[in-house]
Specification:
- This protein is of the alpha/beta class and 153 residues long.
- The chain has one domain.
- Helix content is 24%, strand content 18%.
- Strands 1, 3, 5, 6 and 7 form a five-stranded mixed beta sheet that branches.
Length: 153
């Protein structure tokens, strides 16, 4: 990721004006024990499975990534010129830590790994993601997935 000071002035000034919500320190809900949790990953790296429609700028829809899918079939279609893809190219776990999550399940630290993970385009204004986020939350609830690890990239 590029440092804010290294961005061109127009980009830097735009990011400095970007309004972000302020959250308190209180949890919204009390979660279940991780040893009982079924966990999915939600990344903002603009990931797709080979053959899926690429993510375009400001695309609010999520893409589904199979937990068992081959790593070389997971592609990044992130569009930001400020996004450093080096880590992703060297190790998928940087943006979608499927192997680390599986290790936690194998060690009994979490209950189970979900069959699917999800990816959004990070270069999208947050308010545009609300509808898709609600749709994904309902899908996760329906599938019995009770814990999501958010991976802002």
């Amino acid at each position: 990721m590029v440092r804010l000071a290294d961005l061109p002035a127009t980009k830097r000034e735009g990011m400095e004006r970007y309004k972000t919500p302020c959250f308190g320190t209180q949890p919204w809900v009390n979660g279940i024990s991780l040893k009982q949790a079924t966990v999915t990953l939600i990344s903002t790296a603009g990931l797709i499975m080979r053959g899926d429609r690429p993510v375009t700028p400001h695309d609010p829809r999520y893409r589904t990534i199979a937990h068992s899918g081959a790593a070389n079939d997971i592609l990044m279609s992130h569009v930001s010129v400020n996004f450093d893809r080096t880590g992703f190219q060297q190790d998928l776990n940087v943006v979608l830590p499927r192997e680390r999550l599986q290790e936690l399940a194998d060690a009994g630290e979490i209950g189970a790994v979900a069959d699917e993970h999800y990816a959004f385009m990070g270069a999208t204004q947050a308010h545009l993601l609300e509808k898709s986020s609600r749709k994904l939350a309902a899908l996760l609830h329906k599938k019995g997935i009770d814990t999501a690890l958010l991976l802002p990239v």
